[in-house]
Amino acid sequence: MRTFSWRGALLLCFLLAFAAPILTAENVLRLEMTTTTEDSGPLKFLLPAFEKTKGMKLRTTIGGMGQMLKFARNGDVDTVLTHSRSDEEKLIEDGFGIARFDVMYNDFVIVLPKEDPARIRGLTDAKIALGKIMQAQATFVSRADESGTHRAEQRLWREAGFTPQGSWYLRTGSGMGEVFANERGGYTLTDRGTLVQQRKNLELELLLPGEPKIPNQYGVIAINPKKYPYVNANGAARFVDWIVSLKGQRHIAEYKIDGQQPFFPNAKLR
Amino acid sequence: MNIWEATREAFALLFSGNAELWRIIFISLRVSLTALLIATPCAILLGYGLATFRFHGRRALVVVLQSMLSFPTVVVGLILYLLFTRRGPLGDFHLLFTQDAMIIGQAIIAFPVLAAFTLAAVQGADGRIRETALSLGASNWRAALTTLREVRFGVMAGVFNGFGRVISEVGCSMMVGGNIADVTRNIPTAIALETSKGEFAQGIALGVVLIAVALGVNIALSVVQGSGGLKS
Q1: Which tens digits make up the pLDDT trace of A168-212?
Q2: Around Cβ B107, how many Cβ atoms within 10 Å?
Q3: Residue B88 contacts A where some CB pair is shorter than 8 Å
Q4: What single DSSP character describes residue A214?
Q5: What is the ipTM of this complex?
Q6: Distance between CA B137 and CA A197 in Å, rounded?
Q7: SS3 A144
Q8: CA-based nearest residue in chain A for residue B198
Q9: Which of B174, B180, B196 faces A67 most closely, judged by CB atoms?
Q10: pLDDT in tens, A108-133
Q11: 8 Å CB contact between A268 and A120
Protein backbone atom coordinates (compact mmCIF):
# COMPACT_ATOMS: atom_id res chain seq x y z
CA MET A 1 0.00 0.00 0.00
CA ARG A 2 1.26 3.45 -0.88
CA THR A 3 1.21 5.82 2.03
CA PHE A 4 2.93 8.71 0.31
CA SER A 5 1.31 10.44 -2.60
CA TRP A 6 3.63 12.46 -4.81
CA ARG A 7 0.71 14.23 -6.34
CA GLY A 8 -0.62 15.25 -2.94
CA ALA A 9 2.82 16.44 -1.82
CA LEU A 10 3.18 18.50 -4.98
CA LEU A 11 -0.21 20.07 -4.46
CA LEU A 12 0.73 20.89 -0.86
CA CYS A 13 3.99 22.52 -1.97
CA PHE A 14 2.05 24.53 -4.50
CA LEU A 15 -0.41 25.77 -1.89
CA LEU A 16 2.40 26.54 0.56
CA ALA A 17 4.19 28.59 -2.06
CA PHE A 18 1.14 30.85 -2.19
CA ALA A 19 0.78 30.90 1.57
CA ALA A 20 4.45 31.68 2.18
CA PRO A 21 4.22 35.47 1.93
CA ILE A 22 1.48 35.41 4.56
CA LEU A 23 3.43 33.13 6.87
CA THR A 24 6.54 35.31 6.73
CA ALA A 25 4.68 38.58 7.25
CA GLU A 26 7.01 40.25 9.69
CA ASN A 27 7.38 43.97 9.93
CA VAL A 28 4.19 44.41 8.01
CA LEU A 29 2.08 47.43 8.82
CA ARG A 30 -1.60 47.37 8.06
CA LEU A 31 -2.72 50.82 7.02
CA GLU A 32 -6.19 51.78 5.93
CA MET A 33 -7.29 54.75 3.93
CA THR A 34 -10.60 55.93 2.54
CA THR A 35 -11.41 55.75 -1.14
CA THR A 36 -10.95 59.49 -1.55
CA THR A 37 -7.41 59.33 -0.22
CA GLU A 38 -6.61 56.63 -2.71
CA ASP A 39 -8.33 58.45 -5.58
CA SER A 40 -6.20 61.50 -5.09
CA GLY A 41 -2.95 59.66 -5.20
CA PRO A 42 -0.95 59.65 -1.93
CA LEU A 43 -0.61 55.90 -2.15
CA LYS A 44 1.71 56.33 -5.09
CA PHE A 45 4.18 58.79 -3.62
CA LEU A 46 3.90 58.72 0.15
CA LEU A 47 3.81 55.09 0.94
CA PRO A 48 6.77 53.88 -1.16
CA ALA A 49 8.86 56.63 0.45
CA PHE A 50 7.94 55.35 3.89
CA GLU A 51 8.63 51.74 2.97
CA LYS A 52 12.06 52.69 1.67
CA THR A 53 13.22 54.78 4.61
CA LYS A 54 11.84 52.56 7.36
CA GLY A 55 12.30 49.15 5.77
CA MET A 56 8.73 48.15 6.45
CA LYS A 57 6.06 46.69 4.24
CA LEU A 58 2.75 48.50 4.12
CA ARG A 59 -0.39 46.60 3.44
CA THR A 60 -3.01 49.15 2.55
CA THR A 61 -6.73 48.57 2.72
CA ILE A 62 -8.97 50.94 0.82
CA GLY A 63 -12.68 51.32 1.35
CA GLY A 64 -15.55 53.53 2.36
CA MET A 65 -15.25 55.66 5.45
CA GLY A 66 -17.72 53.68 7.53
CA GLN A 67 -16.17 50.37 6.63
CA MET A 68 -12.69 51.65 7.48
CA LEU A 69 -13.89 52.91 10.85
CA LYS A 70 -15.46 49.55 11.55
CA PHE A 71 -12.22 47.76 10.67
CA ALA A 72 -10.36 50.13 13.01
CA ARG A 73 -12.83 49.42 15.81
CA ASN A 74 -12.39 45.70 15.30
CA GLY A 75 -8.59 45.93 15.39
CA ASP A 76 -8.25 44.67 11.83
CA VAL A 77 -5.68 47.33 11.00
CA ASP A 78 -2.77 49.02 12.77
CA THR A 79 -3.17 52.60 11.63
CA VAL A 80 -5.76 54.79 9.94
CA LEU A 81 -5.50 57.73 7.53
CA THR A 82 -8.91 59.35 7.00
CA HIS A 83 -10.63 62.69 6.59
CA SER A 84 -13.58 62.99 8.92
CA ARG A 85 -12.51 64.69 12.11
CA SER A 86 -15.61 63.96 14.16
CA ASP A 87 -15.41 60.25 13.36
CA GLU A 88 -11.72 60.20 14.13
CA GLU A 89 -12.20 61.92 17.47
CA LYS A 90 -14.93 59.42 18.32
CA LEU A 91 -12.43 56.64 17.67
CA ILE A 92 -10.04 58.13 20.23
CA GLU A 93 -12.82 58.86 22.70
CA ASP A 94 -13.96 55.24 22.60
CA GLY A 95 -10.41 54.08 23.27
CA PHE A 96 -9.74 52.40 19.93
CA GLY A 97 -7.12 54.89 18.81
CA ILE A 98 -4.21 56.25 20.83
CA ALA A 99 -4.11 59.79 19.50
CA ARG A 100 -4.99 61.71 16.37
CA PHE A 101 -2.58 63.95 14.47
CA ASP A 102 -3.23 66.35 11.64
CA VAL A 103 -1.32 65.29 8.54
CA MET A 104 -2.35 67.39 5.57
CA TYR A 105 -5.32 69.22 4.11
CA ASN A 106 -6.85 70.48 0.94
CA ASP A 107 -10.34 71.74 0.34
CA PHE A 108 -13.63 70.62 -1.05
CA VAL A 109 -14.89 72.34 -4.15
CA ILE A 110 -18.19 72.44 -5.97
CA VAL A 111 -17.84 71.44 -9.59
CA LEU A 112 -20.30 72.62 -12.16
CA PRO A 113 -21.31 71.47 -15.61
CA LYS A 114 -20.60 73.67 -18.60
CA GLU A 115 -24.31 74.47 -19.01
CA ASP A 116 -24.50 75.76 -15.41
CA PRO A 117 -28.34 75.73 -15.19
CA ALA A 118 -28.36 77.26 -11.70
CA ARG A 119 -26.08 80.11 -12.75
CA ILE A 120 -23.53 79.78 -10.00
CA ARG A 121 -20.50 80.48 -12.17
CA GLY A 122 -18.45 83.22 -10.66
CA LEU A 123 -19.87 82.87 -7.17
CA THR A 124 -17.35 82.46 -4.37
CA ASP A 125 -19.58 81.48 -1.47
CA ALA A 126 -20.42 77.77 -1.53
CA LYS A 127 -23.52 78.20 0.64
CA ILE A 128 -25.09 80.74 -1.70
CA ALA A 129 -24.23 78.44 -4.60
CA LEU A 130 -26.03 75.54 -2.92
CA GLY A 131 -29.07 77.76 -2.38
CA LYS A 132 -29.19 78.64 -6.07
CA ILE A 133 -28.80 75.00 -7.10
CA MET A 134 -31.69 74.04 -4.85
CA GLN A 135 -33.83 76.91 -6.06
CA ALA A 136 -33.25 75.98 -9.70
CA GLN A 137 -33.85 72.28 -8.90
CA ALA A 138 -30.70 71.60 -10.90
CA THR A 139 -29.22 68.12 -10.66
CA PHE A 140 -26.96 67.79 -7.65
CA VAL A 141 -25.11 64.53 -7.23
CA SER A 142 -24.60 63.40 -3.65
CA ARG A 143 -22.24 60.57 -2.78
CA ALA A 144 -24.77 59.53 -0.11
CA ASP A 145 -22.39 56.94 1.27
CA GLU A 146 -21.38 58.45 4.60
CA SER A 147 -17.87 58.99 3.30
CA GLY A 148 -15.74 61.92 4.41
CA THR A 149 -16.87 63.81 1.31
CA HIS A 150 -20.52 63.05 2.01
CA ARG A 151 -20.13 64.19 5.62
CA ALA A 152 -18.67 67.47 4.41
CA GLU A 153 -21.53 67.89 1.94
CA GLN A 154 -24.15 67.27 4.62
CA ARG A 155 -22.41 69.75 6.91
CA LEU A 156 -22.42 72.34 4.15
CA TRP A 157 -26.15 71.97 3.41
CA ARG A 158 -26.86 72.16 7.13
CA GLU A 159 -24.78 75.28 7.61
CA ALA A 160 -26.42 76.84 4.58
CA GLY A 161 -29.79 76.11 6.19
CA PHE A 162 -31.22 73.85 3.46
CA THR A 163 -32.57 70.33 3.38
CA PRO A 164 -31.98 68.97 -0.11
CA GLN A 165 -34.78 66.71 -1.29
CA GLY A 166 -36.43 65.78 -4.54
CA SER A 167 -35.57 64.11 -7.79
CA TRP A 168 -32.96 66.77 -8.61
CA TYR A 169 -30.96 65.61 -5.58
CA LEU A 170 -29.42 62.36 -6.86
CA ARG A 171 -28.23 60.05 -4.14
CA THR A 172 -25.71 57.77 -5.79
CA GLY A 173 -24.02 55.23 -3.60
CA SER A 174 -21.39 54.40 -6.17
CA GLY A 175 -18.52 56.65 -5.05
CA MET A 176 -18.35 58.16 -8.55
CA GLY A 177 -19.82 61.60 -7.89
CA GLU A 178 -17.73 63.44 -10.45
CA VAL A 179 -18.39 60.91 -13.20
CA PHE A 180 -22.10 61.25 -12.50
CA ALA A 181 -22.07 65.02 -12.51
CA ASN A 182 -20.20 64.88 -15.79
CA GLU A 183 -22.72 62.51 -17.37
CA ARG A 184 -25.85 64.18 -16.09
CA GLY A 185 -24.72 67.75 -16.41
CA GLY A 186 -25.02 68.14 -12.66
CA TYR A 187 -23.26 69.73 -9.73
CA THR A 188 -21.34 67.89 -7.06
CA LEU A 189 -18.97 68.36 -4.18
CA THR A 190 -15.55 66.80 -4.43
CA ASP A 191 -12.15 67.28 -2.88
CA ARG A 192 -9.50 69.12 -4.81
CA GLY A 193 -7.14 66.14 -4.74
CA THR A 194 -9.62 63.86 -6.50
CA LEU A 195 -10.55 66.58 -8.95
CA VAL A 196 -6.93 67.29 -9.91
CA GLN A 197 -6.43 63.58 -10.43
CA GLN A 198 -9.51 63.09 -12.61
CA ARG A 199 -9.60 66.43 -14.37
CA LYS A 200 -8.50 65.09 -17.72
CA ASN A 201 -11.49 62.74 -17.94
CA LEU A 202 -14.10 65.31 -17.06
CA GLU A 203 -15.72 68.29 -18.73
CA LEU A 204 -16.54 69.97 -15.47
CA GLU A 205 -15.66 73.42 -14.33
CA LEU A 206 -14.57 74.36 -10.89
CA LEU A 207 -16.37 76.82 -8.70
CA LEU A 208 -13.54 78.96 -7.45
CA PRO A 209 -14.08 78.94 -3.75
CA GLY A 210 -13.37 82.13 -1.89
CA GLU A 211 -13.28 82.41 1.85
CA PRO A 212 -14.35 80.61 3.85
CA LYS A 213 -12.96 77.49 2.20
CA ILE A 214 -14.55 74.12 2.82
CA PRO A 215 -11.70 72.42 4.62
CA ASN A 216 -10.73 68.80 4.04
CA GLN A 217 -8.42 67.79 6.86
CA TYR A 218 -6.67 64.43 6.93
CA GLY A 219 -5.65 62.82 10.20
CA VAL A 220 -3.64 59.78 11.21
CA ILE A 221 -4.40 57.47 14.13
CA ALA A 222 -2.56 54.48 15.54
CA ILE A 223 -4.81 51.74 16.91
CA ASN A 224 -4.57 51.23 20.65
CA PRO A 225 -2.65 48.07 21.58
CA LYS A 226 -4.41 48.09 24.95
CA LYS A 227 -7.62 47.19 23.11
CA TYR A 228 -6.00 44.80 20.66
CA PRO A 229 -2.63 43.47 21.86
CA TYR A 230 -1.89 41.91 18.47
CA VAL A 231 -1.75 45.17 16.51
CA ASN A 232 1.65 46.26 15.24
CA ALA A 233 1.87 49.16 17.68
CA ASN A 234 5.57 49.70 17.12
CA GLY A 235 5.16 49.89 13.36
CA ALA A 236 2.12 52.15 13.66
CA ALA A 237 4.04 54.53 15.92
CA ARG A 238 6.87 54.66 13.40
CA PHE A 239 4.44 55.44 10.59
CA VAL A 240 2.70 58.19 12.55
CA ASP A 241 6.04 59.69 13.61
CA TRP A 242 7.32 59.60 10.07
CA ILE A 243 4.29 61.11 8.36
CA VAL A 244 4.17 64.09 10.76
CA SER A 245 7.97 64.53 10.67
CA LEU A 246 9.70 67.13 8.56
CA LYS A 247 10.69 64.41 6.10
CA GLY A 248 7.22 62.97 5.67
CA GLN A 249 5.68 66.41 5.42
CA ARG A 250 8.16 67.43 2.76
CA HIS A 251 7.15 64.41 0.67
CA ILE A 252 3.54 65.58 0.83
CA ALA A 253 4.45 69.13 -0.20
CA GLU A 254 6.56 67.94 -3.11
CA TYR A 255 3.83 65.82 -4.68
CA LYS A 256 2.30 67.44 -7.74
CA ILE A 257 -0.16 66.36 -10.42
CA ASP A 258 0.10 68.38 -13.64
CA GLY A 259 1.93 71.07 -11.74
CA GLN A 260 -0.78 71.35 -9.10
CA GLN A 261 -0.27 70.47 -5.48
CA PRO A 262 -3.22 68.38 -4.25
CA PHE A 263 -2.23 68.25 -0.56
CA PHE A 264 -0.79 70.74 1.87
CA PRO A 265 1.07 69.37 4.88
CA ASN A 266 -0.01 70.87 8.18
CA ALA A 267 1.20 68.57 10.95
CA LYS A 268 2.31 70.36 14.06
CA LEU A 269 6.01 69.60 13.89
CA ARG A 270 7.39 68.18 17.06
CA MET B 1 -21.00 43.44 16.71
CA ASN B 2 -21.12 39.75 16.05
CA ILE B 3 -22.77 37.65 13.45
CA TRP B 4 -25.80 36.86 15.65
CA GLU B 5 -26.63 40.48 16.24
CA ALA B 6 -26.28 41.07 12.51
CA THR B 7 -28.64 38.24 11.67
CA ARG B 8 -31.17 39.42 14.25
CA GLU B 9 -31.08 42.91 12.80
CA ALA B 10 -31.56 41.33 9.39
CA PHE B 11 -34.87 39.81 10.38
CA ALA B 12 -35.97 42.97 12.15
CA LEU B 13 -35.40 44.87 8.91
CA LEU B 14 -37.25 42.27 6.87
CA PHE B 15 -40.41 42.56 8.93
CA SER B 16 -40.32 46.33 9.37
CA GLY B 17 -42.14 46.97 6.08
CA ASN B 18 -39.49 49.44 4.93
CA ALA B 19 -40.63 51.09 1.68
CA GLU B 20 -37.10 51.71 0.40
CA LEU B 21 -36.31 48.03 0.89
CA TRP B 22 -39.29 46.99 -1.23
CA ARG B 23 -38.27 49.43 -3.91
CA ILE B 24 -34.80 47.85 -3.99
CA ILE B 25 -36.29 44.36 -4.21
CA PHE B 26 -38.62 45.44 -7.01
CA ILE B 27 -35.76 46.99 -9.02
CA SER B 28 -33.65 43.87 -8.59
CA LEU B 29 -36.43 41.59 -9.80
CA ARG B 30 -37.49 43.83 -12.65
CA VAL B 31 -33.95 44.21 -14.01
CA SER B 32 -32.87 40.59 -13.63
CA LEU B 33 -36.07 38.99 -14.92
CA THR B 34 -36.25 41.32 -17.92
CA ALA B 35 -32.62 40.59 -18.71
CA LEU B 36 -33.32 36.85 -18.57
CA LEU B 37 -36.41 37.25 -20.73
CA ILE B 38 -34.33 39.00 -23.39
CA ALA B 39 -31.32 36.70 -23.26
CA THR B 40 -33.01 33.30 -22.95
CA PRO B 41 -34.56 32.80 -26.42
CA CYS B 42 -31.43 33.79 -28.36
CA ALA B 43 -29.16 31.86 -26.00
CA ILE B 44 -31.25 28.69 -26.21
CA LEU B 45 -31.31 28.97 -29.99
CA LEU B 46 -27.52 29.31 -30.10
CA GLY B 47 -26.99 26.44 -27.65
CA TYR B 48 -29.34 24.20 -29.63
CA GLY B 49 -27.70 25.12 -32.93
CA LEU B 50 -24.21 24.43 -31.61
CA ALA B 51 -25.27 21.05 -30.28
CA THR B 52 -27.23 19.97 -33.32
CA PHE B 53 -25.44 21.16 -36.42
CA ARG B 54 -21.90 20.35 -37.50
CA PHE B 55 -20.12 23.20 -39.22
CA HIS B 56 -16.69 24.68 -39.66
CA GLY B 57 -15.45 26.50 -36.57
CA ARG B 58 -18.01 24.90 -34.28
CA ARG B 59 -15.42 23.68 -31.77
CA ALA B 60 -13.86 27.11 -31.57
CA LEU B 61 -17.26 28.68 -31.01
CA VAL B 62 -18.00 26.24 -28.19
CA VAL B 63 -14.67 27.03 -26.51
CA VAL B 64 -15.29 30.76 -26.83
CA LEU B 65 -18.79 30.40 -25.43
CA GLN B 66 -17.57 28.39 -22.46
CA SER B 67 -14.75 30.87 -21.79
CA MET B 68 -17.31 33.66 -21.73
CA LEU B 69 -18.59 32.07 -18.51
CA SER B 70 -15.52 33.53 -16.80
CA PHE B 71 -16.11 37.05 -18.05
CA PRO B 72 -15.86 39.40 -15.05
CA THR B 73 -19.12 41.27 -14.65
CA VAL B 74 -17.33 44.52 -13.90
CA VAL B 75 -15.58 44.27 -17.26
CA VAL B 76 -18.96 43.91 -18.96
CA GLY B 77 -19.87 47.04 -17.03
CA LEU B 78 -16.74 48.86 -18.13
CA ILE B 79 -17.27 48.04 -21.80
CA LEU B 80 -20.88 49.18 -21.63
CA TYR B 81 -19.81 52.31 -19.79
CA LEU B 82 -17.44 53.21 -22.61
CA LEU B 83 -20.25 52.67 -25.12
CA PHE B 84 -22.91 54.57 -23.15
CA THR B 85 -20.93 57.50 -21.80
CA ARG B 86 -21.93 60.87 -23.20
CA ARG B 87 -18.84 60.96 -25.38
CA GLY B 88 -19.14 57.27 -26.29
CA PRO B 89 -20.51 55.88 -29.56
CA LEU B 90 -23.97 55.23 -28.07
CA GLY B 91 -23.95 58.31 -25.85
CA ASP B 92 -26.92 59.88 -27.63
CA PHE B 93 -29.30 57.27 -26.26
CA HIS B 94 -28.71 58.49 -22.68
CA LEU B 95 -28.61 54.96 -21.35
CA LEU B 96 -25.95 55.40 -18.70
CA PHE B 97 -27.17 55.18 -15.10
CA THR B 98 -30.56 53.79 -16.08
CA GLN B 99 -32.29 50.50 -15.46
CA ASP B 100 -32.18 49.83 -19.19
CA ALA B 101 -28.39 49.86 -19.09
CA MET B 102 -28.47 47.42 -16.18
CA ILE B 103 -30.83 45.14 -18.12
CA ILE B 104 -28.54 45.13 -21.16
CA GLY B 105 -25.54 44.35 -18.94
CA GLN B 106 -27.28 41.50 -17.16
CA ALA B 107 -28.59 40.05 -20.44
CA ILE B 108 -24.99 39.93 -21.68
CA ILE B 109 -23.85 38.31 -18.43
CA ALA B 110 -26.63 35.69 -18.49
CA PHE B 111 -26.28 34.86 -22.18
CA PRO B 112 -23.23 32.52 -22.09
CA VAL B 113 -24.59 30.68 -19.05
CA LEU B 114 -27.90 29.99 -20.76
CA ALA B 115 -26.30 29.00 -24.06
CA ALA B 116 -23.67 26.74 -22.49
CA PHE B 117 -26.26 24.89 -20.40
CA THR B 118 -28.57 24.42 -23.39
CA LEU B 119 -25.62 23.17 -25.43
CA ALA B 120 -24.72 20.62 -22.74
CA ALA B 121 -28.33 19.50 -22.33
CA VAL B 122 -29.00 19.05 -26.05
CA GLN B 123 -25.61 17.46 -26.63
CA GLY B 124 -26.40 14.91 -23.94
CA ALA B 125 -29.84 14.12 -25.32
CA ASP B 126 -30.63 11.15 -27.46
CA GLY B 127 -30.14 12.25 -31.07
CA ARG B 128 -33.00 10.02 -32.12
CA ILE B 129 -35.52 12.44 -30.60
CA ARG B 130 -34.83 14.91 -33.37
CA GLU B 131 -34.49 12.27 -36.07
CA THR B 132 -37.82 10.73 -35.10
CA ALA B 133 -39.53 14.09 -35.10
CA LEU B 134 -38.11 14.90 -38.53
CA SER B 135 -39.08 11.51 -39.94
CA LEU B 136 -42.62 12.05 -38.67
CA GLY B 137 -42.74 15.11 -40.87
CA ALA B 138 -41.90 17.80 -38.32
CA SER B 139 -40.21 20.93 -39.56
CA ASN B 140 -36.74 21.87 -38.27
CA TRP B 141 -38.34 24.33 -35.82
CA ARG B 142 -40.85 21.78 -34.64
CA ALA B 143 -38.07 19.21 -34.11
CA ALA B 144 -36.07 21.75 -32.14
CA LEU B 145 -39.03 22.43 -29.87
CA THR B 146 -39.56 18.71 -29.33
CA THR B 147 -35.90 18.19 -28.44
CA LEU B 148 -35.81 21.19 -26.10
CA ARG B 149 -38.98 19.97 -24.40
CA GLU B 150 -37.29 16.65 -23.74
CA VAL B 151 -34.17 18.25 -22.25
CA ARG B 152 -35.96 21.05 -20.46
CA PHE B 153 -34.55 20.01 -17.09
CA GLY B 154 -31.04 20.82 -18.27
CA VAL B 155 -32.10 23.99 -20.05
CA MET B 156 -33.95 25.19 -16.97
CA ALA B 157 -30.83 24.47 -14.92
CA GLY B 158 -29.22 27.05 -17.18
CA VAL B 159 -32.01 29.51 -16.45
CA PHE B 160 -31.54 28.99 -12.70
CA ASN B 161 -27.83 29.52 -13.11
CA GLY B 162 -28.25 32.60 -15.24
CA PHE B 163 -30.73 34.03 -12.76
CA GLY B 164 -28.33 33.31 -9.91
CA ARG B 165 -25.54 35.07 -11.70
CA VAL B 166 -27.47 38.25 -12.55
CA ILE B 167 -29.51 38.65 -9.36
CA SER B 168 -26.32 38.57 -7.27
CA GLU B 169 -24.11 40.55 -9.64
CA VAL B 170 -22.57 43.80 -8.35
CA GLY B 171 -19.85 44.95 -10.73
CA CYS B 172 -21.87 45.68 -13.86
CA SER B 173 -24.92 47.09 -12.06
CA MET B 174 -22.74 49.46 -10.07
CA MET B 175 -20.85 50.60 -13.15
CA VAL B 176 -23.72 51.23 -15.58
CA GLY B 177 -26.51 51.72 -13.04
CA GLY B 178 -24.63 53.95 -10.65
CA ASN B 179 -26.50 52.75 -7.55
CA ILE B 180 -28.93 55.69 -7.50
CA ALA B 181 -31.36 55.45 -4.61
CA ASP B 182 -34.87 54.49 -5.79
CA VAL B 183 -33.77 54.36 -9.44
CA THR B 184 -30.93 51.93 -10.08
CA ARG B 185 -30.18 50.59 -6.62
CA ASN B 186 -30.73 46.85 -6.55
CA ILE B 187 -30.04 44.40 -3.74
CA PRO B 188 -26.36 43.67 -4.56
CA THR B 189 -25.36 47.32 -5.02
CA ALA B 190 -27.25 48.21 -1.85
CA ILE B 191 -25.23 45.54 -0.03
CA ALA B 192 -22.00 46.98 -1.44
CA LEU B 193 -23.03 50.44 -0.24
CA GLU B 194 -23.99 49.27 3.25
CA THR B 195 -20.66 47.46 3.48
CA SER B 196 -18.69 50.54 2.51
CA LYS B 197 -20.67 52.52 5.08
CA GLY B 198 -19.66 49.98 7.71
CA GLU B 199 -23.29 48.93 8.20
CA PHE B 200 -22.46 45.25 8.13
CA ALA B 201 -25.72 44.18 9.76
CA GLN B 202 -27.74 45.92 7.05
CA GLY B 203 -25.54 44.21 4.47
CA ILE B 204 -26.28 40.79 5.90
CA ALA B 205 -29.97 41.64 6.18
CA LEU B 206 -30.07 42.49 2.49
CA GLY B 207 -28.19 39.26 1.79
CA VAL B 208 -30.94 37.34 3.56
CA VAL B 209 -33.51 39.26 1.53
CA LEU B 210 -31.71 38.36 -1.69
CA ILE B 211 -31.75 34.68 -0.84
CA ALA B 212 -35.44 34.83 0.07
CA VAL B 213 -36.22 36.51 -3.26
CA ALA B 214 -34.14 33.95 -5.14
CA LEU B 215 -35.96 31.15 -3.36
CA GLY B 216 -39.31 32.56 -4.45
CA VAL B 217 -38.26 32.92 -8.07
CA ASN B 218 -36.70 29.47 -8.14
CA ILE B 219 -39.84 27.86 -6.76
CA ALA B 220 -41.82 29.54 -9.55
CA LEU B 221 -39.34 28.46 -12.21
CA SER B 222 -39.16 24.88 -10.97
CA VAL B 223 -42.79 24.41 -11.99
CA VAL B 224 -41.60 24.85 -15.58
CA GLN B 225 -38.61 22.60 -15.05
CA GLY B 226 -40.69 19.56 -14.13
CA SER B 227 -39.55 16.66 -11.99
CA GLY B 228 -36.85 15.55 -14.40
CA GLY B 229 -37.30 11.91 -13.50
CA LEU B 230 -36.73 9.11 -15.98
CA LYS B 231 -39.67 8.71 -18.25
CA SER B 232 -41.15 5.28 -18.73
Answers
A1: 999 998 877 788 888 888 999 988 888 877 777 777 777 766 667
A2: 24
A3: no
A4: E
A5: 0.73
A6: 68
A7: coil
A8: A67
A9: B196
A10: 989 888 889 999 988 888 889 999 99
A11: no
